[in-house]
């Protein structure tokens, strides 16, 4: 039996779980003020006089308001040289005030009123002729704004949003590190409860309970558990599976701490790995290490993807997206969104900068047989990269 796999129960593991020490504080008001100042500067560099941010992760990043987007517009309008203006349904005022961290001028609209008119009025008062718009703003809302303010040119705010969110502060790195530490411990405990016949649903239920016991915000944010052939599909197959001896187990899960994400994958054998499973697992480990070693400030994101693929091609896998091989990008940015810009993929020429954070997961798929994905995360340092979590040691000690 693979070391660290099996031999315990969900009940026994949950009894010994408690939040670890060192939970970082939430992002402080001074940091939100600095974020807004940087956003104003980057907005001005686009030639726009104001920035519009839609509800969602970017709104939380700039204002502290964890507000899910819906058909009712909640947004921040940030003048390049003034205080934020919040656009909000009147009946949501109390809820917005309870989660807003920054000082803002709140402007309300009732259910029969078009919120775009409030934005148009504010833009007219600013004398704005160009507005940088959050790429996450729905098309319908953008069109309503064009109709309400035809004199204002709408441009993409991606350079502003990504320019701010892609570089993590020390406070953000602390939240990410703590969240990933929780999920790595959950992986260790999940391996211990495996037994022949256990279902994927049972494992997912345990993982959610374990995240909650460790103090994650709201339990698991997602959880994929795949046995055997299902592991050959990057996001699994519909329905439930029961574990059999000799199958590979692929578990991809994560949690949040103050909104910042963990997202870690482990793949290992239930029982003794076959020679082919060992071979592919070792190639995956080598590709992940090559991607990590290629990280340097100034290197384009796509070069990290290329480094992982070069390893696979040297072992006769691929090339490109051909299978057996790597069917998707090597990694994604991570922060308040589990997937965010920039991306470790061909065509993304964004230069790496100190403080950027990424997944490293050059999955290998062997069609109709199995897949191996080892996913850990790193942040870019002044002279390379640093892991948030220790990668798997070997297929025999995958959870150490």
TrEMBL record:
- Domain Creatinase N-terminal, which positions? 35-167
This protein's UniProt keywords: Aminopeptidase, Hydrolase, Metal-binding, Metalloprotease, Protease
| Peptidase M24 domain ranges (all copies) | 175-382
Under what name is this protein listed?
Aminopeptidase P family protein
Family stated for the protein in its record: Belongs to the peptidase M24B family.
| InterPro entries in the cross-refs | Creatin/AminoP/Spt16_N, Creatinase/aminopeptidase-like, Creatinase_N, Pept_M24, Peptidase_M24B, Peptidase_M24B_aminopep-P_CS
Cite the residue spans of the region called Disordered: 1-25
What GO molecular function annotation could you give as one example from this UniProt entry? metallopeptidase activity
One GO BP annotation of this record: proteolysis
Q: Which domain of life is it from?
A: Bacteria
């Amino acid at each position: 039996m693979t070391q660290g796999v099996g031999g315990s129960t969900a009940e026994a593991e949950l009894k010994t779980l408690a939040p670890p020490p060192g939970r970082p504080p939430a992002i402080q008001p001074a940091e939100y003020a600095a974020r807004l100042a940087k956003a104003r500067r980057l907005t001005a560099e686009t030639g726009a006089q104001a920035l519009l941010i839609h509800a969602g992760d970017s709104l939380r990043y700039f204002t502290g308001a964890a507000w899910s987007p819906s058909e009712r517009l909640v947004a921040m309008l940030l003048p390049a040289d003034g205080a934020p203006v919040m656009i909000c349904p009147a009946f949501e005022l109390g809820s917005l005030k309870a989660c807003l961290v920054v000082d803002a001028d709140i402007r309300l609209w009732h259910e029969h009123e078009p919120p775009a008119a409030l934005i148009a009025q504010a833009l007219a008062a600013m004398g704005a002729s160009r507005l940088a718009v959050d790429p996450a703003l729905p098309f319908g809302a953008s069109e309503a704004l064009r109709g309400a303010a035809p004199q204002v040119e709408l441009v993409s705010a991606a350079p502003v949003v990504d320019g701010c969110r892609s570089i993590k502060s020390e406070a953000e790195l602390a939240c990410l590190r703590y969240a990933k530490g929780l999920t790595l411990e959950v992986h260790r405990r999940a391996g211990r409860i495996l037994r022949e016949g256990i279902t994927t649903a049972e494992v997912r239920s345990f993982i959610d309970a374990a995240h909650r016991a460790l103090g994650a915000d709201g339990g698991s944010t997602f959880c994929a558990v795949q046995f055997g052939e299902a592991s050959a599909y990057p996001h699994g197959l519909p329905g439930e599976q029961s574990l059999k001896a000799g199958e590979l187990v692929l578990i991809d899960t994560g949690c949040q701490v103050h909104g910042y994400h963990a997202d870690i994958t482990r793949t290992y054998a239930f029982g003794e790995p076959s020679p082919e499973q060992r071979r592919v697992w070792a190639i995956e480990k080598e590709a992940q290490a090559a991607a990590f070693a290629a990280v340097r400030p100034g290197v384009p994101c796509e070069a990290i993807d290329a480094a992982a693929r070069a390893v696979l091609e040297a072992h006769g896998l691929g090339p490109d997206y051909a299978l057996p091989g790597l069917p998707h990008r090597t990694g994604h940015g991570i922060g308040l969104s589990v997937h965010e810009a920039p991306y470790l993929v061909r065509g993304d020429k964004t230069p790496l900068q100190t403080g950027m954070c990424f997944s490293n997961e050059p999955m290998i798929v062997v069609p109709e047989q199995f897949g191996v994905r080892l996913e850990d995360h790193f942040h870019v340092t002044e002279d390379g990269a640093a892991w948030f979590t220790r990668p798997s040691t070997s297929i025999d000690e995958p959870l150490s």
